[in-house]
Design goal:
Blueprint: H1 18-28, H2 38-52, H3 62-75, H4 93-106, H5 111-131, H6 141-165, H7 171-175, H8 177-193, H9 195-200, E1 202-205, E2 211-215, H10 216-248, H11 252-255, H12 261-281, E3 287-291, H13 297-307, E4 313-317
Helix pairs in contact: 1-12, 2-3, 4-5, 4-12, 5-6, 5-8, 6-8, 8-10, 10-12
Pfam family, one: SFXNs
Family: Belongs to the sideroflexin family.
Organism: Larimichthys crocea (Large yellow croaker)
Length: 320
């Protein structure tokens, strides 16, 4: 293939299948890309944009274009093309998530520790949710503040309440409290951080990218899928790892190295997240679709009056 005709935006893998999406997200959530300097990312963006313009530099190989697109997708927002903050990128989910989750699982016994690590986690989540929102629906600083306060309060109330409630429960039940708090907070944090999409609708297009209007029902569908993905992302590590640690801690060698229990959990969470971040992101297509018949009556009638039966589905970026 001549590189002048190379379509750099064409999916490298079939996005209609889970395995195709899994390969795609393994590619763009690669934690190693988070270590690269901004100058390297900007170079990748410049190469992607030159390829789109049909002016690929002489000597550029197809593999270089694929790698540039990988860096571009990992660091630049799909709606705006702006470079995302480092902590909010999905490629930072493994190093950031493993540290926070590992310490949440380790320090779950005292209320001050629970409060601190849940606050750190929700601050991290709020930044991730804001960074990966559908940027076509702006959110005000005041709304960000309300979303952050509400989600953090939900996490703390759930964690502290369950922590006190499980004082007399089996030890393993207490170890699962952090996951319950994280799941509850995700159900609040994500919708609140993306409330503008729910209130005003999300931009929907036809198959060719032509804008058709805004839909609140599409927003609700996309955000619901993101919530499910985020809870799924955290579940294996936060449910299975406590079982593993409880059994390991019975061995004498583990009892002699209690100071290493935290780092051990951090590393083990990292192993889970390396696989679970791309797997959870792959549960639903990034470019979400919805039947026109399921849209709000006003938008549905508008589309049908303009396009008749030619447009059967609308498409939108659900965010991550």
């Amino acid at each position: 293939m001549a590189l002048s005709s190379f379509d750099i935006d064409a999916p490298r893998w079939d996005q209609s299948t889970f395995m195709g999406r899994l390969k795609h997200f393994f590619n763009i959530t690669d934690w190693r890309t988070a270590l690269l300097p901004d100058s390297r990312l900007d170079e990748a963006k410049a190469l992607v944009e030159s390829c789109r313009a049909g002016t690929t530099p002489p000597g550029t190989t197809e593999e270089q274009l694929h790698y540039a697109k990988k860096l571009y997708d990992s660091a630049f927002h799909p709606d705006t093309g702006d470079r995302m903050n480092l902590i909010g990128r999905m490629s930072f989910q493994v190093p950031g998530g493993m540290a926070i989750t590992g310490f949440m699982l380790q320090f779950y016994r005292t209320v001050p520790a629970v409060v601190f690590w849940q606050w750190v986690n929700q601050s991290f989540n709020a930044l991730v949710n804001y960074t990966n929102r559908n940027a076509a629906s702006p959110i005000t600083p005041n709304q960000i503040g309300v979303a952050y306060f509400t989600a953090t309060s939900t996490a703390l109330a759930t964690a502290v309440g369950l922590n006190l409630y499980t004082k007399k429960a089996p030890p393993l039940v207490a170890r699962w409290v952090p996951f319950a708090a994280v799941a509850a907070a995700n159900c609040v944090n994500i919708p609140m951080m993306r409330q503008q999409e729910i209130l005003n609708g999300i931009a929907v297009t036809d198959e060719n990218g032509n804008k058709l209007g805004h839909s609140t029902k599409a927003a609700v569908k996309g955000i619901t899928q993101v919530v499910v993905s985020r809870v799924t992302m955290a579940a294996p590590g936060m449910i299975i790892l406590p079982i593993i640690m409880q059994r390991l801690e019975k061995y004498k060698f583990m009892q002699r190295i209690t100071f290493l229990h935290g780092p051990i959990q951090v590393m083990m969470v990292g192993v889970f997240l390396i696989f679970m971040v791309p797997a959870a992101c792959s549960l639903f297509p990034q470019r979400c679709s919805m039947a026109v018949s399921k849209l709000e009556p006003e938008l549905r009638d508008l589309i049908r009056s303009q396009y008749g039966d030619a447009v059967q589905h609308v498409y939108f970026n659900k965010g991550l």
